[in-house]
Amino acid sequence: MSLPASLSQAQHQRPYYEWSRGILREKLSPKTDHSRVQFKIGALLVAWGENVGIVGGEIDTNVTPSPGDTRRYLPDVGFTSFASLAAVGQTGSRIPEIPPDLAVEILSPTQDRAYLAEKVSAYLAAGSRVVIVADPASRRFAVHRRTGVETLLAGDVFTDPAFAGLNLDVTAVFGILDRR
Amino acid sequence: MPLPSNVIIPDDKPYYEWAHGTLRQKVSPSLEHSRIQMMLGALLMPWARDRGVLASEWDMDVTPASGDTRRYLPDVGFTSFAALKAAGQLDAAIPEISPDLGIEILSPHDDRKYLADKIAAYLSAGTRAVIVIDPATRTFGVHRSAGTEVLFEGQAFTDEAFPDLSLDVRDVFGILDRKPE
Q1: Chain B contact for A50, CB < 8 A?
Q2: What's the CATH class of domain B23-177?
Q3: Do A80 and A6 contact (CB within 8 A), yes or no?
């Protein structure tokens, strides 16, 4: 299948397009798209979990993957149950000393992948049940658990026994980018 | 209007704003600030989804006066698809217009003078309304070119520029009352 004529040369003007499997797809705008996806996921988590825990974005969180190794992370979106906070005496803490039960990081084109991988490992080692890395470019979730990594594509839905009743539909999350 | 080419704003956290020739680190949101921010997303998303772009900490280049372009990241911003299209910014990673609706959530450490300057800049650049949300007093300060209005619990923000939008003050702050039993 040949490229469309509009892509015969390098693109110098927005919007940029990619071409795959016969489909022309507008290239994402990194800053705006990151923000839109972040807010969409946050809104979905609030709708699900506002009565059972704290949903926040960019919340300062102290994460301790091993004794003596405490780090300050700000997950793009995080959910921590009231039960988890109460269990460690952190209910009133302004900077929780535990990682979110569910952390979500949204990829940006300029993101340092090695740093992100280290952060995902630290969350899990410190007690996060799940870390979702949402990639607007490929419209995928990489779902990290201590047992391994699962990739969710459009049409898939994130669920986990640790978050009863939560359904994060990959298509619905990234669908916000198709609203124009 | 883009920022001057010699202004380099880091992509990574901490995020920065730029105004009056100065880079200023965006204050990391407190827990309450962040919970309200996400609650606003839940409340506004259904209204906004077919009307425009709704985002948090959204890099925007705001030009309140010719030659005075600033980089701001509203805590929450809404810009209609129509406004983005009219400005040729529909696909911009960093739109060069101000949001139609800007929302800033007060933190104890906010620089009130800087915030007042930012509100004035938004309004001069075309923003229809700026809501300043104060978790401490549970009030909204609604700033428009015509003046400022304070909304309390039991009231709701509405504006003819945003048809069918009703943002109930109590609904927004109610998230802070959700605590372990």
Answers
A1: yes
A2: alpha beta
A3: no
Q: Domain extents for chain A?
A: 29-178
pLDDT of residue A6: 59
Q: What is the pLDDT of residue B31?
A: 83
Bridging pattern class, strands A69-73 and B60-65: unpaired
Handedness of CA B81, B83, B85, B88 (dihedral sign): negative
pTM (two decimals): 0.82
Dihedral of alpha carbons A144, A25, B76, B71, sign = positive
- Total Cβ atoms within 10 A of residue A61: 24
User: What are the residue ranges in chain A where pLDDT is below 70?
Assistant: 1-30
Residue by residue, DSSP assigns B44-70 as: HHHHHTTTEEEEES--EEEEEETTEEE
Cα B57 to Cα A35: distance, rounded to the nearest angstrom: 7
Q: Which residue has the higher pLDDT, B165 or B112?
A: B165
What is the C-alpha to C-alpha distance for residues B88 and A20, in angstroms, rounded to an integer?
Answer: 26
Nearest Cβ partner for A179 among B49, B57, B94: B49
Q: Please answer whether residues A40 and B45 qualify as being in contact, where contact means their C-beta atoms are separated by less than 8 angstroms.
A: yes
For chain A, how many helices (H) and strands (E)? 4, 12
Class of domain A29-178: alpha beta
Give residue-wise pLDDT tens across range A67-112.
988 888 888 899 999 999 999 888 877 778 899 999 999 998 777 8
Q: How far is CA B51 from CA B47, B80, B100, in A?
A: 7, 6, 11
Residue A116, min C-alpha distance to chain B (Å): 12
Cα–Cα distance, B106 to B129 (Å, whole number): 16
Best probe of the A interface among B56, B61, B71, by most A CBs < 10 A, is B56
* B173 in reach of chain A (CB within 8 A): no
* Between B79 and B107, residue with greater pLDDT: B79
| B149-181 pLDDT, tens digit each | 999 999 999 999 999 999 999 999 999 988 766
Question: What ranges make up the beta strands (E) of chain A?
Answer: 17-20, 23-26, 53-56, 61-66, 69-73, 77-81, 102-106, 130-135, 140-145, 148-152, 157-158, 168-169
